[in-house]
Fold this sequence. Notes:
Layout: E1 3-11, H1 19-31, E2 36-42, E3 46-51, E4 54-59, H2 65-77, E5 84-88, H3 94-104, E6 109-114, H4 120-123, H5 127-139, E7 149-152, E8 158-159, E9 162-166, E10 188-194, H6 203-215, E11 221-227, H7 233-243, E12 249-253, H8 257-266, E13 269-271, H9 287-295, E14 299-301, H10 310-316, E15 317-319, H11 329-340, H12 347-359, H13 361-364, H14 366-373
Parallel strand pairs: 1-2, 1-5, 5-6, 6-7, 7-9, 10-11, 10-13, 11-12, 13-14, 14-15
Antiparallel strand pairs: 2-3, 3-4, 8-9
Helix pairs in contact: 2-3, 6-7, 9-12
GO molecular function: glycosyltransferase activity
Domain Glycosyl transferase family: 181-271
Protein name: Glycosyl transferase family 1 domain-containing protein
Amino acid sequence: MKQLLYIAPVIIDFEKLNGVSKKILNQYKVFSKSYNVTLLSYGPDCLYYLNNDFFETIPLNQANRRLKMYSFINEKLSVNNYNFIYSRYHLCDLLFVNTLRILGRKAIKMVVEIPTYPYKKELLKSHNGFVRYFMDSSSNFLLRFFVGRIVTYSQDDKIYGIKAINTMNGIIYENVIPVQKKQFSSKEIHLISVSMTVICHGYDRLIEGINSYYKLGGDVNIIYHLVGEGEEIKKYKDLVLKYGIEKHVLFYGFKTSDDLDVLYEKADIAINSLAIHRIGLQTESTIKSKEYAAKGLPMVSSYTVDAFSSQDNSKYVYQISADETPVNINELIEFYKKMYENADHNITEEIRLASEKRCDMSVTLNGIIEYFNTAV
C-alpha cells in the first residue's frame, strides 16, 4: 500500500473534540482506506504521531509547538519514503518551505490544503496578524517549486501559481445520527448553532433580530440554543442581558456526543455563518453546515450553502442579506412554516439524502485521491 504523510498543525484534544479536530481525524480515516497514512498533529501540550494502531505523544519540552513539528519532520520523518504528502496550511514562512523542500526529495506528489481563502482581511485585523501576513506573502510564491496542487474551498483555479483542486468540507455521514421527524408548532420554534464562535459567525445578527421581534410585539416563542465557546460568547451574553431576552437565548458552552444529540433533537432550524462578509469572504465551506445537513435540519445562512445544489438551497436554506441588518424573525417564521406546516413527507430525511451525495467525505476527498493516483 502506498505511503501518505498527513501534516495537520491543529490542536486535537481527544477529551474535547471540536469540528476541525473531527475533520482531521475523519480525513485520516478516509485516506487510510486508500493508503498507509501517517498523521502528525498537535496535542494540547505535545505532538501526536499516528500510524494505524501506533500512537505516540512527543513532548514539547518547552519548545514552540510549530518549531517542534518542523524539527521532528526534518530530523525523524525526512528519512522515510512517502509517496504522497498532504499538509494543512498554517501560513507560509521559510521554515515551512524548507520542510517541504526536504520532504519533496522523498515524495512523488505534494498537496497543501488551505482551509480559508482568501484570508488577508481576517489576518490584517491585528498587529500580530500583520506580521504573520507579511511573512506569508514574502514566501508563499516559493510553494510552486514543491507543491503540485492546492486544495481550496473557494472557486479559484490557481493559488500562488499552483493549480487548485476545488472541493468542500465534508463529514462521514454514517457517524451522524439524523434527528427524528419534526412536528409543526404554531407557537414555538427552536433554533440551534454549534461552533467555536468567531466574528464571522455573526450570531449577534440573530440576537438583534430576536430583540427586534419582541419589541414589535412578536408572540411566537423563539428559543435559540447557542452551543459552543469562543471569542464572541461574552459579546453575545452581554447583548442578551442588555435586551432582557434570557429566556429566548440559551447558552450551553461546549457539548458533544449524547449531550449534543439531545439539543439537536430540540432544534427545528440550524444557524450557519451569518457574517462572513466581515472577513472579506463571499463564500465559505463550513463543517457545521455539513453536520446540520447530516442531521437533517434546514438552515439560515448569509450565503449559499455548498452542502446543497442551487435548487436545494432554495428549498432548505433561508438566505439572509450579507450585511449587518438583524435577522428578520417574521421571515424566519414563514420559512419554518414552509418547511414543516402541512408537510406530508419527512423533511429531515430529504435534507440528509440531498446533501449526502455532495458532501460525504468519501465524495469530497475523491478529487485529491484521484490526483494522487494519477500517474506522474
